[in-house]
Write a structure and sequence with these properties.
The chain is of the alpha/beta class. It has 2 domains: about 180 residues, 3-Layer(aba) Sandwich (Leucine Aminopeptidase, subunit E, domain 1); about 300 residues, Aminopeptidase. The chain is about 35% helix and about 20% strand. It has 15 helices and 22 strands. Strands 9, 10, 11, 12, 13, 16, 17, 18 and 20 form a 9-stranded mixed β-sheet that branches. A 6-stranded mixed β-sheet has the order 1-6-5-2-4-3, sandwiched between helices. Strands 14-15-19 form a 3-stranded mixed β-sheet.
């Protein structure tokens, strides 16, 4: 796909359509007024008639007669006073999905004047959202839906009497392309059915990306994991004929720095619940249970392209959880890499079991800070729905810093407590720990369980059970969202900026 900046005015462009942002106050800025005059007042008429109110992701299409641009699509941004640059990702995705399904192949995007103080960031969000809007979920049909095949995206640098700096737009385009492509990598991996996305397949995809973008790759097999004492991960895997893998990706952006940020992602390529089998209804969605692992792999691929001066490792425990003849049983005891014994109360609480050994291994590799992400608990969906990712940590400073960065990416994160009560609850009568304490505070007792495998390392747990996949929206197809790729990449970028600013003796850089 070609993505470029145009210095021309919005209506002078030869494009299949112009996407134009509007707000719910119905007020047209000078740039939009100029376009409206060329359209003989059509935009003002649409607002006056009540056909459109400018609500978020609301659309109205105008056929532009006599202009080089063939159509003008108005896309609502909601309240002007609440505008933030991340809204532009949904604006762009909405335009791409609406116009792409109507055979438009070239789209020019106008930016609101409210974006002029954050030009690079705004351009990045537009491109990221546009790329995310192209993905559909019908690729396995013999006659799939018509693809959204956008060939060209144009960012308009002129807005009435105002202009957006072309260099900043170009920088934003490049970052948005990298991030949008990474988000789609994670989404396509999660969309792939479990028979085509086994632990071995997942490792192979990680290796492909590592070769393409210059990451170091390793995949530990079951024999190696056994020697390392990863009985918790292997206990989950033993009910399946598919061998587990522990995928490790390494990015060295600052080789002389002992600091190492680790991302650990749950890679359960299919989860039947094991012996504690899940209900049949919606079990097919358990192919998405590797979304955290896919997010880590995709985030490392983007980091390798963006090249922040920071060392980052990605660790993905990949396994299936099936009720085979060798499957771990309720009441069994497994031993994790750090020697902790775990009483398996419920085999459907398997994500924390595979993460336990992966967290231990991240520390073994020298991680100085850890963020894990997992579709871990249904309790988190009950708590926060699909609106935000539950965020739990053993380090207040680290988590506050993370939230400040992550909540500017368009993904939403909400901190929950890690009280001592939850750590007491996960103690077992016959082993060190038990993997399930029942429904009450299920997400938080799961977090307390994981805390046993990070020691004193600053650590954040992201429960993405409610945010990893959604029903269809105006700006994105039904299925995986790519969460938490955006937040992980932003964290790595910002940590590198802060370190660089500290080394130079200047105040910490502004967050991305």
């Amino acid at each position: 796909m070609q993505i470029r900046v145009s210095p021309g005015t919005a209506t002078s462009l030869e494009a299949g359509s112009l996407a134009l942002p509007v707000f719910s106050d119905g007020q047209l800025d000078d740039a939009t007024q100029g376009i409206d005059r060329e359209l003989e007042g059509a935009i003002a008429d649409i607002f006056a008639s009540g056909e459109m109110k400018g609500k978020t992701n609301e659309v109205a299409l105008i056929h532009a007669k006599g202009l080089p641009v063939k159509r003008v699509l108005l896309v609502g941004l909601g309240e002007r006073a609440k505008f933030e640059p991340q809204a532009l990702a949904k604006y762009a995705g909405t335009a791409v999905r609406y116009l792409g399904k109507r055979n438009v192949r070239s789209i020019a995007f106008a930016l609101p004047l409210e974006a002029q103080h954050q030009v690079r960031t705004s351009a990045s969000f537009v491109v990221e959202g546009a790329l995310a809007g192209t993905i559909d979920s019908t690729t396995y049909r013999t006659e799939p839906d018509k693809p959204i095949a956008i060939e060209e995206l144009i960012l308009v640098s002129t807005a009435g009497s105002h202009g957006f700096e072309a260099a900043a737009l170009e920088q934003g385009i490049e970052r948005g392309r990298i991030l949008g492509e990474a988000v789609n990598v994670a989404r396509l991996m999660a969309l792939t059915p479990a028979n085509d996305m086994t632990p071995t397949h997942m490792a192979a995809r990680a290796e492909e990306l590592a070769k393409e973008f210059g990451l170091r790759f390793e995949a530990l097999d079951e024999e190696r994991m056994k020697k390392l004492g990863m009985g918790s991960l292997l206990g989950v895997s033993q009910g399946s004929d598919e061998a587990a893998r522990l995928i490790v990706l390494t990015y060295e952006g600052d080789p002389n720095n002992p600091e190492k940020l680790a991302f650990v992602g749950k890679g359960l390529t299919f989860d039947s619940g094991g012996i504690s089998i899940k209900p049949a209804e919606n079990m097919h969605e358990m192919k998405y249970d590797m979304s955290g692992g896919a997010g880590v792999i995709a985030a490392l691929s983007a980091i390798a392209r963006l090249k922040p001066k920071l060392n980052v490792i990605g660790v993905v425990p990949a396994s299936e959880n099936l009720p085979g003849p060798r499957a771990v049983k309720p009441g069994d005891i497994v031993r994790a890499m750090n020697g902790k014994t775990i009483e398996v109360i419920n085999t459907d609480a398997e994500g924390r079991l595979i993460l336990a050994d992966a967290l231990c291994y991240a520390r073994e590799l020298g991680a100085t800070k850890i963020v894990d992400c997992a579709t871990l608990t249904g309790s988190m969906v009950m708590a926060l729905g699909h609106a935000a990712t539950g965020t739990i940590s053993n380090d207040d400073g680290f988590v506050k810093y993370f939230l400040g960065v992550a909540n500017q990416t368009g993904e939403r994160y909400w901190q929950l407590p890690l009280y001592e009560d939850y750590s007491i609850a996960v103690k077992s009568e016959i082993a060190d720990l038990r993997n399930s304490t029942g429904r009450p505070a299920g997400s938080l007792t799961a977090s307390a369980f994981l805390q046993n495998f990070v020691g004193t390392t600053p650590w954040i747990h992201l429960d993405i059970a409610g945010t990893a996949y959604v029903d269809e929206t105006a700006y994105m197809a039904k299925g995986p969202t790519g969460t938490p790729v955006r937040a992980l990449v932003a964290l790595a970028e910002d940590m590198a900026k802060v370190r660089a600013a500290t080394k130079n003796g200047t105040p910490a850089a502004a967050r991305t």
